[in-house]
Amino acid sequence: MTTLRHAGWILLPVLFAVFPLFSLFQQNETDIELGVLWPPLWLCIAGGAAVYGLLLAVFKRPAKASVLASFVVFWFLYYEPVAGRVSGTGWWSFAWWTAAFALASAAVGRTRLDLGTVTVILGAGALVLVAGPLARISIYQANHPGVSVSDPRLWPDRLAPPAVVDRSRLPDLYFLIPDDYARLDVLRRYFHYADTAFVQALTDRGFVVSQQARSPYSDSESNIAAALNMAYLDGLPRILGARSQDVRPVRRLIADSRAARLLESIGYQYVHLDTDGVTFPVNNPRVSAAAVPDSLENLWLQKTVLRMFGRPIGFDQHATDARFRDSVRSGFSQLEKIAGEPGPKFVVFHTLLPHDPYVFGSNGHAATFPYHSDAALGSNRGMPYYLDQLRFLNGKLLSAVDAIREHGKRPTVIVIESDEGFQADPETFGEAAMQQMRVKGLEALYLPGHPKAGTPQPPNTVNTLRFVLNQYLGTHYPLLPSHSYPELDYPYQFEEMRVTP
After folding, report:
1. Distances in Å between the alpha carbon of 336 and those of 418, 453, 493?
2. Of the candidates 68, 220, 290, 485, which lies 20 to 30 Å from 49 by C-alpha distance?
């Protein structure tokens, strides 16, 4: 009985600690894998237990330590959900929130009353809080099993592995994916910006830039998955249902793709890099989840009292932006170092730039977007910040291209292909224009030894890797008809749109 009581006293602050995390995960479970939950969950459990243990050592009374530990957890983790709704999350709110916590803690700390009944009441409340999201998470996971790239229902065709005789002549393949990089004509028409310096720099290095490239879908993950699997994603609605909201399988098809498997079968090393976490089903192993703008860990910690403080431990806007800048610079540094490693290599590199958050100026200096609505990002207010970030990205891409070509140990193929075009605000540009802009992105190919190869025809990014492998590995993959689908009410609601030239 004593052991059970001690377990209950420890469990009380732990339950209060895990509830905000469970609630946040459950609200986003259609987008993120269960594996993302484990690191912050263990942190909650360890943190709640550690606070209880510390207070037990101070007060020597388990019930009192349990109540006080719950207060500490509540003060730390419930700041934005409670204080933020009452009076916002400025320093005045933080002051009264902390003062209320201190007064309540002092009252409990000084009392000589038996707090056993209080712990029972608090424990019952904590169990009720946790039971709801935990049950919904469990039911969702049970009803939505995973989808593997090897599932034959996904793909209408079977791609034969390349027949390679001399592996020493295989080129390194680099697939560089900037996020939301608009096509040249879109930049000219809507931004009144000619990207001529960047295009000329690419041309001088031997790249061919497509003037008509478009993507099959209107979201990053679907386009990258289609490109890396060299096929449309029509199999997903057949397997999951056309009204499924479960987009987790798309990221699985990025991390483990048909292209990667085909190339690995002939001796390629698959190198998967990202400056954030868009292309990883769980967490990017090379980037802290705290640096990824929309990761579960980042969103969770921004709701705590840490949102009031800067680096190194804080999560105010300046701190989160600085972490993201560091991850971008680190990602490009890793990309440039990969070039010197032995091959053959298939390198897939994604960077969120020039997509928001807008944190870089044109020369790489820190920038801060002064507006707080999503609509502003894709409106006339956001466009100058987008262009500044695009100019900065251009320099990083050219630097990476130069490093890859200089340090590569074998012939090198480089594809620079945005996952999609600019995410325009429909109220600013109109729904039709927004849909057109969304599927028109940058595509540039460096194909040494094939000066007359041109670009894929039809000019759809679903065909790029089919086209490249046909040029270099002796495959004969047919290029697919060009289709594009706007973003509708459901992620797998594929209704073809007419794309203007």
Report:
1. 19, 26, 39
2. 290
How far apart CA 406 and CA 355 sit, in angstroms, is: 28
Q: 167-472 maps to which CATH number?
A: 3.40.720.10
Domain ranges of the chain: 2-143, 167-472
Half-sphere exposure of residue 436, counting CA atoms within 13 Å on the CB side?
Answer: 15
Does residue 263 contact residue 183 with C-beta atoms inside 8 Å?
Answer: no
| Segment holding 175, helix H or strand E | strand 172-179
The residue type found at 426 is: P
Sign, Cα dihedral of 363, 385, 88, 29: negative
Using omega within 30 degrees of 0 as the cis cutoff, is the peptide bond preceding 448 cis? Answer: no
- What residues are paired with 274 via a beta bridge? 350
Contact 25, 37 (CB under 8 A): yes
The per-residue DSSP string of 7-46 comes to HHHHHHHHHHHHHHHHHHHHHTTTTS-GGGGHHHHHHHHH
Between CA 141 and CA 139 the distance in angstroms is: 6
In a 10 Å sphere around its CB, with 0-12 CB exposed, 13-18 middle and 19+ buried, how is residue 478 labelled?
Answer: exposed
* Count of residues in the chain: 501
| Rounded CA separation 441/461 (Å) | 9
Dist CA 115 CA 56 (whole Å)? 14
CB atoms within 10 A of CB 489: 7
* 36's tokens: 């993302």
Residue 389, Cβ neighbours under 10 Å: how many? 26
As a whole number of angstroms, the distance between CA 244 and CA 379 comes to 30
* CA end-to-end distance (rounded Å), the chain: 75
Residues of the chain falling short of pLDDT 50:
1
The CB-side HSE value for 396 (13 A sphere, CA atoms) comes to 30
Over residues 398-442, the pLDDT tens digits come to: 999 999 999 988 999 999 999 999 999 999 999 999 999 999 999
Closest by CA to 262, choosing from 475, 45, 40, is 475
Structure tokens at 353: 């730039």
Q: pTM value?
A: 0.95
Model confidence over 244-293: pLDDT tens digits? 999 999 999 999 999 999 999 999 999 999 999 999 999 999 999 999 99
Fill in the amino acid letter for 429. F
Look up residue 171 and give its DSSP letter.
P
Site of tokens 């840490």: 306
CA distance 302 to 269: 37
3-state secondary structure of 179: strand
Instruction: Note whether 72 and 109 are within 8 A (CB).
Output: no
DSSP 366: B
Is cis: bond before 354, omega within 30 of 0?
yes
